[in-house]
Structures are given as C-alpha cells and as structure tokens.
Design a protein that fits this description.
Strand order of the largest sheet of chain A: 1-2
Largest sheet of chain A: 2 strands, antiparallel
Shape of chain A: globular
Largest interface: A-C, 40 and 41 residues
Number of strands of chain C: 4
Helix content of chain C: over 70%
Chains: A mainly alpha, B alpha/beta, C mainly alpha
Distance between the termini of chain A: 39 Å
Structural class of chain A: mainly alpha
Radius of gyration of chain A: 19 Å
Oligomer: heterotrimer
Order of helices and strands of chain A: HHHHEEHHHHHHH
Number of strands of chain A: 2
Order of helices and strands of chain C: HHHHHEEEHHHEHHHHH
Radius of gyration of chain C: 20 Å
Distance between the termini of chain C: 14 Å
Strand content of chain A: under 5%
Shape of chain C: globular
C-alpha cells in the first residue's frame, strides 16, 4: 500500500470515526445523563439524511438557498422535534425500567420508519454536495481526495469542540454534568431539571439529525441506515464507557480505523471486525475504556 | 453480664498486617485482628477509618494489598468470598441484602441451601429439601422471626429486616460472624432485641461487630479495636478503651 | 386459589393448541407452528432474563445455529435420523452458548447486553459473508428428518404436533427446573447476587449453566424453524430477531413462563393483524406503524406485561390489595 492510498484510508477512517462520534455522543449523553436507553436514536440520523434529500426543493423554492440553508433549516426543525419528543414521550420514560425503555423506543423506531415511508417513500436516494465542496484535492502525484469528505470531518470536529466547550466552560455544561450525578441535589439548588433534560435531549437529537444531513452525500440515503448506525453507535458507547464523551471519541476513531482498514485488508471479515474489537476490549476492561466523565 | 474469658480460646479468624491501598491512598494500614470463639470483638472508628474495607477484606470481597487472613487455621487470603462462606464465615451487611420479593422463610431457606446446593437434581422441588428447610426454620427461630415466615421480606419493618439479615447469616451455621452495623437505623426496643440475640449467639461463635452505637458496643463487646485513618490506635478491653487518652481525643470526643 | 388460575390458563392454552388443526386450514397450522417455535425461543430467553436476570441481546445466534445445523448436517437426498439430528443441533447451539457465556459473564449490565450482541453478530457475519453458511442466498433443506417410519416431519400436521410436544416438554422442563434448587439459586442471583455469594454460592457456574441451557433451547427452536420452512438464511441470526424475541417476553411479562407464551402469540398475532389487507386494505404495507404504536401502548398501559393484565383489572375493580409489597410466588408458571 503506497503512501497516498494509506493517507486516503486514514482520512476515510477519520471521517467515518468522527461521524460515528457525533451520533454516538448524543446517545451516550442521553443514556449517561438521563438514564434512558433510546433505541430510536439511529432513526434521528436517518431522518436527517432524508431531510437533506427532501428539504432541498422546498428550501430552494422558499429561500432560494442551497445545501447550507438546508442544514440550517434542518437543524432548527430537529431542535423543535427533539424538544417536542422529550415533552410528549421521553419524559415519561425516565421512571421506567431499562427494559421498558427498550421496548418503547423499539416501537418508536417502527413508527418513525413508517412515517418516513408515508412522507417520502422507501426509495434510495443520492444527495449532491454543494458545488463549492464538490471538488477534489490532489494527494501526491496520482490520487485525489474529495473535498466534501474533509468538510464532513471538519463539521464533526467543530461540533465536537463546541460540545467540549459547552460542557467544560459554561454554566449550562456544569449544570448538565451535575444533573447526571445527582438529580435531586440539582433540583434542590433551584435548577429546573426538567428543562435541563429537555435541552440535553433536543441537543442530542439535533446533533444526530445534523450528522445524518451532513453524511447524506457520502453514504447515500436508504431506509435501513438508521438501524445500521444505531448498532455501531451502541458499540461505540459501550467500548468508550457509558456516559463518557472522551471515551466515545476514542472508541469512534478506533472503530473508524478498524472498519476502514479492515475493509481493505480483510474484506470478507470486515463486518465482524468491529464486534471482535468490542468483545476484546470488554473482556479486558468490562466497564469500557473510560468511566463516565 | 459478660462471661469470663472461657477456656476454649480458639482463635477462629486471624487477620495479620492487613494492608489495602487504592492508588496512592492507604485505606487500611497493617491492621491485625483476632476473633476468638465465644467473644464479641467490636471495631469502631470514624467514617473513613477503614472499617468497611477491613471487613470486606476479611470476608473476601476485596483482596488485600498485603497481609494475610486465616480462617479456622487455614490461610484463606486467596480464597473467594463464597469459598470462605462455605468454610464457616458468615457476613451481614450494613444495607439490607435480603431478597425483598421472597418470603421470610424462603430468604432463610435459600441461604441455608448454600450448605447443600445439589444443583444437578433439577427435578426435585426445592421446598422439599429437608436440609435447607430445617436449617431455615432453626435460623428464623433463633432470630425471633418464627411468626413472620410467610410474610414477604419487603413488608417487614426495618428492625425485622435487620433481624432477617442476621438470620440469613445463621442459616449456614457459620462459626465466624462478621456483622456490619447490625443496629443501623434501629430504635431502642429493636436495639434491645438485637443485643439479646447477639448475647445468645456469643457462646458458639466468634463475632466481629462494626458499629457506631457506642452504648451498645460498650455493653456487648469483650474487646474493642479502634481505627483511625486506616490504623489501629488501640485494641483492648472496653474499660481500658474508655479511659485511653488517645481514643478519647481521636474519637470519643470527651 | 390464585395459584391454580395460571395452571388452568396454561392447560387451556395447550388444549386449544392441540385442538386447533381441527378448526383451521393449512395457513392457520403453518402460522401457529411458527408461533409455537417463537414461543420455545421466547422461553429460552425467559430462562435467562426472567429467571437469572441476564439480559442477552444475542439469542438469535443460538437459534440460527440450531437451524443451520439441521440443514448443514442433513444428507442431501435422504431423511436424516431425527434421533441424532435433533440432539446434535441442540448441542451445537449449546456449545456456542457455553463459549459465549464463559467469556461474556465477566461483564455486567449494559456491557453484558452488548457483548452478547457482539458474539451474535460474529456468528451472523460468518454465515453471511463466508461460503460456510451459503451466504445471503441461504440454504435449502430438501428432505426433512424422520424417526424411522414413526415420525416423518415432512407433513405439516406431523410437524405441528411435534412442535407442540416440544413446546409442552420445554415448558414443563423449565417449570420443574425453576422450582428446583438450581432454579431457586438463579432467582437468588437475580434478586441479590451479593447475598448469594456472601452465603456461599459460587454464582458464575450457575449463570454459565443457565446460559448454556438457554442456548440449547433456542437451538431447539431454530431446528424446528428450519424444518418448517425447509430453508435457512443469515437473517435467522440477525440482531432484529434477537430484539424481536426480547420484545416478545417483555410484552408478555417477564418473570413468568406463561409470559413467554403470551408474548410470542401477542407479537405474532399483532403482526398478522396489522399486515392483514382484509382489515387495512392498501395501508397494510405500513403495518410497522400499527405494530409500533401497539407496542408503545402496551408498555405504557401494562407495565407488568400482558401477564399482569388480570391483576391490573382486579386492582381496578376491587381496589389495591392491603399488602403493598409485591410477592413472588415460588412456582411461577
């Protein structure tokens, strides 16, 4: 494998890993802070991707905007969706046992799938990246690398930095971290824990939706994409340690590398490698790489 | 009404130079302790003194970083907790570890089953196992719970739950009892009942008692060990402890 | 009095199942055979989740191994001997369960759930991506096994009653097992593993035995499934199926063997209901929506599962019982 190809695979690993991290961070936040197992998290990713496809004509007609306008509109809609969903459905799950949460969010997956099917159908779609990002960068003498993939990595990195900043440097982040370890204490301090949870949940949904929108030109838009990403995200969360954002990042990058290079070297076993990795790590560290932050 | 030191002074449990480190923190620092048959040995100390860690090491739940544990003459330092329990070591916990959804009787019976587990006899109804049902009745009676056998354990009062905790210990007929704050959360009447129970148990067992209730400790203990910051600062008969100046300043606050 | 009601219910169920072929045609027989296979599958998971408290998300692997063993070990052109094919298939599934359990039981909680999923995915990818399992096309079973001339599982009716007998045998076996010393030890491990260890039980061997047994029973279900359709493909090991069987026992009610039966039937019948074009017309192709909403409604309204329905009704009509603490009956069938 020559240097250029190696670099390409590294960049692909990074892009895939960062995207996974983005989706998984929402999952680990929601489980780590609110104790809710949300199987429907993958559906948000799927909704994002289909939004990127379906909103494009509407946004073009209303605002005359292109891809970036779709991203903005989609994110706003996602925040609203997350807020409503938490208020109408998820707030009832906090008291329930984990197994009941599993069942209810499994039902939610089915509902989302069919609503999407009714709204936009079951076809597979491609989404074009915007023209500014549609080019390629030269890599070495012969190879080139798509600019859009670098854009995806960039967006994910930016969002990751944003999350880190909010968590460690803002009051909101401090309240969130406090709320995850001691709910009653935070409430007695006069902080509205319900509002806090709603914000966290809406943020988690928005991040997953945005990830789906941004990923659409790379991974195309198809019905089963939510479930596929869900399983891998659970693997990320578990390897990284439940509730740990740091862990999710490390685990996502690890999986990005294993999966990408696995497909190159051992295409027959590529699917299983991620699971072998998880099994090995859990047997070494039964609680994941990092305990919750 | 404490008996004189009896002739059968066999040391049933011996901890030698037990040390436990968590990273840089030394939770237990070269603590030695002996439990003799027919005596109650109390361990007192402020929170964070290392009492819980000590009792966890003696029972086998966590391994020591240094030192050894001897049970009935055998070195059990590397033994797991179940193995020590089968060899005659009983343990009660500070928080209730009863089975709240089972009846009081089933709580005791399941505990007693550990003595005669026979898991391969899958066709036999566990309720017909004479070994475990007999031992269960005995243990429940000793703990004063005969009239509550059919009640779900979760419906008992707090004091009764603590009694059940002890009964489950007794169901396997252990020789050594490690009791972690059995009087926790008890009112005056319940405390009396528990102390009477301990008094009854004294002759046949070697009892380690970790407790915060000073009155009860001074009434029932034959020997008191005082721990501060993981070290033993005094280990003596109750009267000597009461007048020990170091203990007074460090702990009793007189 | 209340102890007899579940027994009567279970006997009535089996009676109805025995009489069913007289009342419906071949579609009904095929459907109910499938449901009974799911019920055996659900019982295997109930042993793990309900009795031992081990939530396994990889049960489909053992189901699939039982199915693939049945097909791969059958000779191409003649009937395999049922007397050896059945035990071998069960043992194959149990052996994989033994290996998975030995490694997974080191972890706890959500991590345990994910490790079991990982091992199931490994099995899935082996049959999906390698020539061993025939790939996504699957493999056909051309001649069903037979026990001499006594039992020929080629006939739908014979297979129906054979499946019914297997279901009954599994149910009785588990009911007896759960009230034995082993079963009570599992219950103790589920409620308070710390206390079990403090009393002197080495809990790991018990959990491993339950895991292995559960894998074998799932293998039995897979075996029967392969015989029913005469076809196996990698989807029999997919996590969707692992999820579905988990849904079945939660829906039915965890902690009761009959919950697994009820859940399997409810889940399958709900699917049939929402798929039915007679009722929903063209909308029937969106049956996932109805199923999803039904599942959400069931969990929201029935926190104890369908099994808890009579108790919930009673509480509504008569008022809450005086004893607030829930009590487990010892013989939870």
């Amino acid at each position: 494998m020559d240097l250029a190809t190696f670099l390409i695979q590294c960049l692909n690993s990074l892009q895939y890993g960062l995207l996974l991290f983005l989706v998984a961070s929402g999952l680990t936040l929601i489980f780590g802070i609110m104790g809710v197992i949300n199987l429907a998290h993958g559906s948000f990713y799927m909704i994002g991707a289909y939004m990127a496809f379906a909103l494009a004509p509407a946004v073009a007609a209303t605002f005359g905007g292109g891809f970036f306008a779709v991203l903005v509109v989609g994110t706003v809609l996602a925040v609203l969706l997350g807020y409503l969903l938490e208020w109408a459905f998820f707030s009832f799950l906090y008291e329930r046992e984990h197994l009941q949460q599993v069942l209810m969010t499994y039902g939610l997956i089915l509902v989302f799938e069919e609503l999407r099917s009714l709204a936009v159908g079951d076809d597979v779609h491609g989404v074009q990246p915007p023209d500014i990002l549609a080019g390629t960068l030269p890599l070495g003498d012969v190879m080139t690398y798509p600019v859009y993939r670098l854009f995806v990595s960039g967006v994910c990195l930016l969002l990751a930095l944003g999350m880190w900043f909010v968590f460690t440097r803002t009051r909101l982040g401090m309240m969130i971290r406090a709320g995850s370890t001691n709910r009653e204490m935070v409430q007695s301090l006069g902080i509205d824990i319900k509002f806090l949870y709603r914000v966290v949940f809406a943020a988690g949904v928005a991040i997953a939706v945005l990830a789906g929108m941004v990923a659409a030109p790379v991974s195309s838009v198809y019905p089963g994409m939510g479930n596929t990403v869900l399983i891998i995200c659970f693997v990320v969360v578990v390897i990284g340690g439940i509730g740990s954002i740091r862990g999710a990042l490390l685990a996502a990058l690890l999986i990005g590398v294993v999966d990408t290079f696995g497909k190159v070297f051992v295409p027959q076993a590529a699917g299983v490698l991620v699971y072998v990795l998880m099994a090995l790590i859990l047997l070494w560290k039964p609680d994941g790489l990092f305990k919750a932050a | 009404m404490k008996p004189e030191a009896n002739g059968n002074d066999a040391v049933l449990l011996r901890g030698r130079d037990i040390t436990r480190r968590w990273g840089g923190l030394v939770a237990v620092d070269r603590v030695s302790i002996e439990l003799e048959r027919g005596s109650v040995h109390a361990v007192i100390g402020t929170n964070g003194a290392g009492k819980s860690t000590l009792i966890n090491i003696l029972s086998g739940e966590i391994p020591p970083s240094g030192g050894s544990v001897e049970l009935l003459g055998q070195d059990v330092t590397r033994w797991t907790q179940p193995r020590r329990a089968r060899a005659g070591l009983g343990r009660s916990y500070q928080r209730n570890t009863i089975y709240p959804t089972f009846t009081v009787f089933e709580n005791c019976r399941l505990a007693a089953q550990a003595r005669s587990p026979r898991p391969w006899a899958w066709w036999q109804d566990a309720q017909r196992c004479e070994a475990s049902t007999g031992a269960a009745r005995e243990a429940a009676a000793k703990a004063g719970l005969e009239t509550f056998l059919d009640r779900p354990a979760g419906a008992l009062s707090h004091g009764q739950k603590r009694q059940l905790e002890i009964a489950m210990c007794l169901a396997t007929a252990p020789e050594v009892l490690l009791l972690d704050e059995p009087l926790a959360g008890m009112g005056a009447e319940e405390t009396e009942r528990m102390l009477a129970l301990l008094e009854q148990l004294r002759p046949g067992h070697a009892i380690l008692l970790v407790e915060h209730d000073m009155d009860a400790v001074f009434r029932i203990a034959d020997r008191i060990t005082v721990m501060v910051n993981g070290c033993v600062i005094a280990s003596d008969a109750p009267e000597a402890i009461r007048t020990n100046p170091q203990v007074q300043s460090a702990y009793l606050g007189h | 009095m209340t102890m007899r009601a579940p027994l009567v219910f279970v006997l009535a169920c089996f009676g109805a199942l025995a009489a069913l072929p007289l009342l419906t045609g071949s579609y009904g027989v095929d459907l109910v055979t499938k449901i009974m296979v799911y019920a055996i599958f659900a019982l295997s998971l109930e042993l793990l989740v309900g009795a031992a408290g081990l939530v396994c998300f990889g049960q489909a692997a053992f189901f699939g191994i039982g199915a693939y063993a049945a097909v791969l070990l059958s000779p191409a052109s003649e009937a395999a001997g049922l007397w050896w094919l059945l035990p071998v298939s069960i043992v194959a599934a149990a052996l994989y369960a033994l290996a998975v359990g030995a490694l997974s039981l080191r972890t706890k909680g959500v991590y345990f759930i994910m490790v079991t999923l990982a091992f199931a995915q490994m099995a899935y990818y082996v049959v999906h991506d390698t020539p061993l399992g025939g790939g996504t096309d699957g493999i056909y079973l051309y001649v069903k096994p037979a026990l001499g001339s006594l039992i020929d599982l080629d006939g739908a009716l014979t297979l129906y009653f054979f499946t019914l007998a297997s279901l009954a045998a599994t149910f009785v076996f588990l009911a007896v097992l759960l009230r034995s010393r082993f079963g009570r030890a599992l219950a103790g491990i589920r409620v308070n593993e710390q206390r079990m260890r403090a009393t002197g039980f080495s809990t790991y061997p018990y959990k491993l035995a339950a895991f292995t047994l559960s894998g074998g029973i799932a293998g039995l279900a897979g075996f029967l499934f392969a015989l029913k359709d005469g076809f196996v493909n990698p989807e029999l090991m997919s996590w969707h199926l692992s999820g579905a069987v988990l849904i079945m026992i939660i829906l039915g009610g965890i902690g009761h063997l009959r919950g697994a039966l009820i859940g399997a039937f409810a889940f399958a019948l709900l699917q049939e209901f929402f798929k039915s074009e007679a009722i929903f017309g063209a909308f029937a192709k969106h049956w996932h929506l109805g199923l999803g909403l039904a599942i959400i409604a069931c969990v929201a309204l029935l926190p104890r599962g369908l099994v808890g329905l009579p108790a919930q009704w009673r509480e509504r009509l008569v008022g809450r019982s005086r004893s607030a603490a829930p009590q487990e009956a010892l013989n939870e069938a």
